[in-house]
Specification:
The chain has 6 helices and 8 strands. The chain is of the alpha+beta class. The termini are far apart. Helix 2 packs across helix 6. The chain has one domain: SH3 type barrels. Strands 1, 2, 3, 4, 5, 6, 7 and 8 form an 8-stranded antiparallel beta sheet that branches.
Length: about 210
Amino acid sequence: MNFEDIKIYLPKYLSPDSERALFEGLRDFPENIDSRLYTNYLTDNEVIYQGDGLKDMLIINLPETTLGKGKCMIISNTCDIDPDNPRFFPSQVVYAPIFNLRKYCERLADKLGKTSAQIQSHTEAIRKQHITQIFYLPEMAGVLEESIVFLDRLLNLPSNKIERNKIPQIRLFSLSDYGSYLFLFKLSLHFTRIQEKVERRDLRKNPET
């Protein structure tokens, strides 16, 4: 990739150094999916950012009715869940549970009978972000083991139920520029691919007129 060619697609608010670092990360993808996906630059902010990892979030696995708490990743756009953004209706925070990759692989073997070779191949695909409905989270020392987020297992909670002054205490991580760009790319692949190959006509009898 040529930096000048891809520059037109990069965020316009980045400093030259951050812009260059983002490009370097994209150029080396997928061999560089490691701790560079995270940043400590936003740690103390009382803002919930898209892609944030938060602990103690409410979790339910329908059709089961048991309510629990656990680590989750924010799917909602940062601006949409900002309390300072006026709206006619209360906003909901959309998020998805974070699953431990090691435990997930153990379940594949113990419950689903997958072989070691199958699990290894599947895990390699996960780590390279090749599976569209799974976002891979590399290890973050002292905070998070290798983990995954299923983009098709979403939950939501009223935005005002999350106390913003407690965000620095419950935030596990925020994504770096590179991590955020990659996360948005995965979201777009999962939710907006136009590949169903179905012709959808409107209700008019003569669509061409």
